[in-house]
Design goal:
heterotrimer, A mainly alpha, B mainly alpha, C mainly alpha, B: mainly alpha, Helix Hairpins, C: mainly alpha, two-stranded antiparallel sheet, 2 strands, about 0% strand
Chain lengths: ~190, ~100, ~300
């Protein structure tokens, strides 16, 4: 038996890291810690993607998740009853059902690859995945890419519409109320 | 590093995500569970792209769509949480039993 | 030379460059402070003083707050310094050579910049005290607003090279530097680069008006490491600015590494001078300007670059 190559070692390092920190997300006693653990889990997944040859996607995943986790941590500190998020907490419901569902889904998904025959056509290495992806994005799959862009634009507009409360000209819901019929304030001075 | 190993890791991440999405009371933690499930999807998709698709770049397009879904889900989730908090002063699912109030 | 040896050389080289850069920033900061504020200290004092200060901080007792998150507090400065090293490793040092040159060096650098906000938030949150958390929130608002103009400004620099590899981006500047092709890129990059390490007029997270912000509760070796990491990130950003916009190793007569160092030092001097001459902006102003002014300017910049190339 030959010694494992460094890619194998790194693969299992990132895999174990991702799963363990992922588990710690729902065992952390503070929400901010949970957000940091989730970021660590995502970073490990990003490492796995880089190992699998998708450098660009792996780094973009990390780049995207950094911002996302910051927003998450800020929102949690804002809305939690436990402001700095440093007091211990454990808030779960239907614990047993969740555990059963998780174990069942893991077994179903993990057994499947060993039962069925998977196609085995690995990418030619070394693969210029980044350049290839760029050509694909602005070539054949341009419509898909544009759809993603428009979806994100719609999300931006929708999110602003949902959350904006106070605009430059007063409260956001002000215009939707009809003016009162009585005009006591409009009496002559 | 073969496809089975990648899929097992993805399955483990997905299972953790299922647990989180079902068990957490806090809405933000619930979103974390959803994110982790999408994360598992991304890992599995890249695994298939890298080890079973023979270098077809459309596998990566699929992952970009996954990332879009992730961003949309988070943005809309947080704006809904913000609205729920403004109206009910609540951020946990138990307080949302009654949809009309 | 086999792979492992060259990797070792690259790591050592990055570490040495980072350490020298940090010390130079510390010296330059003191000299400029005495130049601007009077009370002139000589060269010798300026060179010795940072080492004295570092020794003092190393020996100082490390105080903690009662309910702090100790691992996070210890991790944040180290994480920040590691990010600075990663960012610096992407900068090409001589023709066609960098400590690390992945095909996606551009994205790796941006990811390092994005992760800085996690480091700063962790650093402000973990002491569980009012002023650090205040600083962390300020940095959150600041970082989320500068990410987009930052990426757009860098994107304009990557456009002429048609590549995301930093070495390719510098190699494409052999005739015209990017500072000509993307005229607004360098100012945008510098504004954002100063905010990344909370420097000078855009230092909101560690500002004096909230008693040092995220580092208000720091003492001893933690404070030393945090300041070091901030200086290190400043060095990395200045070096990257030289590579992306000022042509990196390209220059007449002298060898490439000399030009890289010269351009880095010039940008560092600009940062230091801004730190001592300009007033600090308010958080609201910064956020509004980022979203409403810098993003449109960055888009105009990309348009201009594209028109130039066509």
């Amino acid at each position: 038996m030959n010694a494992p190559s460094w890619t194998t070692v790194l693969f299992w390092f990132f895999a174990a890291g991702g799963v363990i920190t992922g588990y710690r997300v729902f065992r952390a006693d503070s929400m901010v810690r949970a957000a940091f653990f989730l970021l660590a889990s995502f970073a490990a997944t990003g490492g796995l993607l880089v190992l699998l040859g998708a450098e660009f996607l792996g780094m973009v995943l990390i780049l995207m998740m950094a911002g996302e986790m910051l927003v998450m941590a800020i929102i949690m500190v804002m809305y939690m009853m436990n402001p700095a998020g440093l007091n211990p907490m454990f808030m779960v419901h239907q614990h047993r059902t969740s555990v059963i569902a998780a174990v069942a889904s893991f077994l179903a998904l993990a057994v499947l690859p060993f039962v069925i025959t998977l196609p085995a056509r690995a990418n030619p290495r070394p693969v210029a995945a980044t350049a290839q992806l760029g050509t694909e994005l602005l070539g054949d799959s341009m419509l898909v890419f544009q759809t993603a862009g428009v979806t994100l634009l719609a999300t931006i507009v929708g999110t602003v519409a949902l959350t904006s409360r106070r605009g430059r000209y007063g409260d956001a819901e002000e215009g939707s109320k009809e003016p009162p019929l009585e005009e006591e304030a409009m009496e002559s001075p | 590093m073969n496809l089975q190993a990648v899929l097992v890791v993805a399955a483990a991440l997905f299972a953790i995500g299922v647990y989180g999405a079902l068990s957490q009371q806090s809405l933000v933690m619930l979103i974390m569970g959803l994110e982790m499930m999408i994360n598992a999807g991304i890992l599995a998709a890249v695994g298939f792209w890298s080890l079973a698709a023979g270098g077809n770049p459309q596998g990566e397009m699929l992952v970009i769509m996954f990332m879009t879904v992730m961003a949309v889900e988070m943005a809309l989730g947080f704006s809904l949480i913000t609205n729920v908090y403004r109206i009910r002063r609540a951020d946990i699912t138990e307080k949302l039993r009654r949809l009309r109030e | 030379m086999n792979g492992y040896a060259s990797a070792g050389v690259a790591v050592v080289l990055t570490g040495v460059a980072l350490a020298v850069g940090i010390y130079l920033v510390a010296i330059g900061d003191r000299l400029l402070a005495s130049l601007v504020g009077g009370g002139g200290i000589g060269w010798r004092t300026a060179v010795v003083r940072p080492a004295q200060r570092a020794t003092l901080l190393l020996l100082q007792q490390r105080l903690t707050t009662e309910p702090s998150d100790a691992p996070g507090w210890a991790l944040a400065p180290a994480f920040f310094l590691a990010l600075a090293a990663v960012a610096l490793a992407m900068v090409p040092v001589a023709r066609g050579r960098a400590a690390a040159d992945p095909a996606t060096g551009f994205v790796v650098f941006s990811a390092a910049i994005a992760l800085v906000m996690i480091a700063v938030f962790l650093h402000g949150w973990s002491p569980d005290a009012a002023l650090p958390l205040h600083g962390a929130y300020r940095y959150g608002a600041q970082a989320l607003s500068f990410q987009i103009p930052f990426l757009l400004a860098m994107l304009a620099a990557a456009l002429p090279a048609q590549s995301l590899s930093i070495v390719d981006i510098v190699a494409a500047q052999d005739t015209v530097w990017n500072v000509i092709r993307t005229p607004l890129g360098l100012p945008l990059f510098l504004i954002v680069g100063a905010s990344v390490s909370s420097w000078g007029p855009v230092n909101l997270a560690d500002a004096a008006d909230i008693a040092g912000g995220t580092s208000a509760e720091d003492s001893g070796v933690g404070r030393l490491l945090w300041q070091t990491a901030r200086y290190g990130m400043l060095v990395a950003v200045a070096a990257m600015g030289g590579a992306l916009f000022l042509g990196g190793w390209w220059g007449p007569l002298l060898p490439g590494p000399f030009w890289v160092i010269l351009k880095t030092v010039v940008l560092l001097l600009a940062f230091l001078a801004a730190g001592h001459l300009l007033a600090r902006v308010r958080t609201e102003t910064f956020v509004v300007v980022s979203w409403a002014v810098l993003i449109p300017l960055a888009l105009v910049n990309i348009f201009f670059t594209g028109a130039f190339l066509l």
